[in-house]
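Have a think about this chain, tokens included, and walk me through the fold.
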Amino acid sequence: MNWLLMHSSALLIAIPLFAAFLAPLIDRVNKKAMNVFVIAVLIITQIIMMILAWDVFTGITHVYVMGASNPAAAIPAQAAVPVRIVFEVDGMGAFMGLISTTISLAAAFYSIAFVKKETGQGRYYTLLLLMVVGMIGMEFTGDIFNLFVFLEILSISSAGLIAFRFYHGDAVEGAFKYIVISSLGALMVLFSIGLLYGQYNLLNMAALASVMKYTVLDKIALALLVAAFAMKCGAVPMHMWTPDAYTIAPAPITAMLVVASQVSLYALFRVCFTLYGMTLNLTTIGIIIIALGLLSMFVGVTMALPQKDIKRLMSYHAISQTGYMLLGVGVGLYLLGQSDFDTYGMKAMEGGIFHIINHAMYKGLLFLTAGAIFYRIGTRNLNEMGGLAHSMKCTTVFFIIGALAIAGIPPFNGFASKLLIYESAYHVSPILSIIAMLVSIITLASFVKVFHSAFMGPPMEGVEAREVPKSMLLGMSILTAGIILFGLFPDIVVSNIVHPAVQALADQAGYINSVIGGV
């Protein structure tokens, strides 16, 4: 067990990476064997991630140096700073790792039947596994250049999967928009890395944070990093790619794209709290992130209302929900360094971080239900569907649970995290809470419209609508179980998973000491 724990962060990247290269070879031999292989790889990845997270949440930060005789020593004997590839897994990294592996596993189960009739399944699973590599790599890496490398792996594999059903013209269009935005964001990240490396001759985030002087060049690098990751997470006004990419991607990939966007959000938070930390003008940056959050909430939900395409409607709601995360963490950043931080700032950040995992589950579930509808009746147009509750009872129940969760209705998980955000944002300004609650009400109205259009009314004529295959139901069941459990026992989740993540994110000194001190 000790060996597994010591090497777990490297294994979580190495296992899906090697599996990605093996998948097309196994596909040539036996397609069923490839499905079993991919599921087995993701189950093993999930188990290792849970073991690592359990250890991290007890207060142990894992530092791993690739290729070193002592993987726990970040600084070599002949050097004064970390020079090798360093993984650093604290509470926040472990929290994000759990989200990535869980949603990927649910998406893989769902994919077995969903892409069964498609050609190129070997390519599909290779790219899916590379997405897992990109997400976990961004969450675990301890240096900014490898953050760029894993961002590129994630972007390229995601673009390939968005364009997977290339015979739909809009699939290529959505993938093209995504890769253009991703390339622009990557260039901004690379340019900011150049600015920081040129000044400090360092790439390790902990070493950089320890010497950060907040010069003019540092401020330019910060602006580029914030813009790049805000664009990649789909925050308004840089959200243009999100509806096109989310809508056309295969449903399980859309669920993973939601997590991929959240990984960019994580990178944004990591830059603000860990790389720059107390050197920032916290009030100004906090206000900027709060403003991005409010814009994302309001624009996302109002753009969703007139949509007729069920996945496009859900895509705009994904933008809106990202606003809640930005609002919660923005309020925490605004209060960081003030006397109110321990009371209201921590609660706001707990709400924002808790909403990340809740959103991954209920939004992932909603996209899977939309995929189930498309799988059976072949359309995403709400005006061309109806009465599906008669023939797709399980999908109907899954949709209701996801819709109630995203609207913040108790006892589902969305209510728990939104309540934390409402309470803490009210302390900064009651208007913030009022806008957040108003957006939830509009979200509920929007999903009532979807439910009425898709599931109510007489059965559809001329369409053999029936329930989807069991593997797709299993994928949706995994996320539904998480939504219900997190909604029924929010205190346990916040105390054992969310609070350690928030503490790790807010503790810049702890992050620096864990790497430079080689603890």
